[in-house]
Amino acid sequence: MIAFISGGARSGKSAHAEALACRWQARRGGKRYYLATAQASDGEMQQRIARHRDDRGEGWTTLEAPIDLLAALTRAESGATLLLDCLTLWASQWLYAGPNSEQAGLDMIEGLLAEARRRDIALVIVSNDINEGMPPENDEVWRYLAFLQRIHRLVAREADTVIQVAAGLPQVWKGRP
Amino acid sequence: MQLFLGGACAGKRSIVRQRFASPRWHSAYAGCRLEAWPSVGVSPCCLVLEGWEHWLWAALTDEPDNERLRRRMIGELDALRDWELKHGGEVILILLEMGRGIVPLAPEARRLRDLNGWLAQDAAARCRRAWYVWNGLVKSLTH
């Protein structure tokens, strides 16, 4: 089972994703993992991570994966439920942490989805919509936006459940919430 | 006439390609001027117009009055609808959603954002169907 949940900043998408992961785990059993893409690069980021951790509550095992999502997935056992939050941050780290190509990034995401299905890991993926404002003027920002959108389209196509969150309310595009 | 609205790289073009057979493209990204669309001819076909933000950007440098420019664009929409009725084709408008970010600092960018929003409203009011494209998926905005 794969779910993709996206929306604007502070739209409530993380809370929906966490609730969905909890429901899936309650139904399926197994452990519940939080796959964190964020790195505590400065004080504000540390606070942000701490707030997310407090909001999530008990019962989560955190795996950190700023770049290699597949390696992190292999640390979860078959039958587990895994929440990945979020793709926006991962995409920027993928592009700018080293000489990584867009195609290799798409291959990584495709591999992640395939591996989750093969090992029966329920995967809830969170991201941000950043493409509905003014088009970027900077080429590098365009490159990032185009890369993130290719990932979004891939994940939305492959996911069983796709939800857009606005003002805390879920809009279901695909499957059941 | 149908409208496909969505953010940058949302998958609008690919959805239109899937849904309409052999459309003729009149694209600002390929250097076409908006006013040149009648040159596509009169045979029944599906005519896609995309890159409206480029046409608006080019137009707003010559026209300082937003209302006049909005009316000019409405004139183009009406002409497209008339062409469709007269020739039995189908006009597809692809528009970029750009109104959901922060207010731009540059006055011209603010004008572009406003005009683009009005254009989307004016287009939707004249289209028999309007669609919202999001991350490669599509949803009807009209019922």
Give a short overview.
The complex is a heterodimer of chains A (177) and B (143). Chain A has helices at residues 13-28, 43-56, 69-73, 87-96, 102-118, 139-158, and strands at residues 2-7, 32-36, 61-64, 81-85, 122-128, 161-166, 169-174. Chain A is an alpha/beta fold.
Q: Which keywords apply here?
A:
heterodimer, A: 177 residues, alpha/beta, Rossmann fold, seven-stranded mixed β-sheet, 6 helices, 7 strands, 46% helix, globular, B: 143 residues, 4 helices, 43% helix
Q: How many individual β-strands of chain B?
A: 6
Distance linking N and C termini of chain B: 15 Å
Radius of gyration of chain B: 15 Å
Q: Estimate the helix proportion of chain A, in percent.
A: 40-55%
Q: What class would the helix/strand composition of chain B place it in?
A: alpha/beta
What is the CATH superfamily label of chain A? P-loop containing nucleotide triphosphate hydrolases
Q: Strand-residue fraction of chain B?
A: 15-25%
Low-confidence stretches of chain B: none
Summarize the SSE layout with pairings:
The complex is a heterodimer of chains A (177) and B (143).
Chain A: E1 2-7, H1 13-28, E2 32-36, H2 43-56, E3 61-64, H3 69-73, E4 81-85, H4 87-96, H5 102-118, E5 122-128, H6 139-158, E6 161-166, E7 169-174
Parallel strand pairs in A: 1-5, 1-6, 2-3, 2-4, 4-5
Antiparallel strand pairs in A: 6-7
Helix pairs in contact in A: 4-6, 5-6
Chain B: E1 2-6, H1 12-19, E2 24-27, E3 46-50, H2 52-62, H3 66-87, E4 90-96, H4 107-126, E5 129-134, E6 137-140
Parallel strand pairs in B: 1-4, 1-5, 2-3, 3-4
Antiparallel strand pairs in B: 5-6
Helix pairs in contact in B: 2-4, 3-4
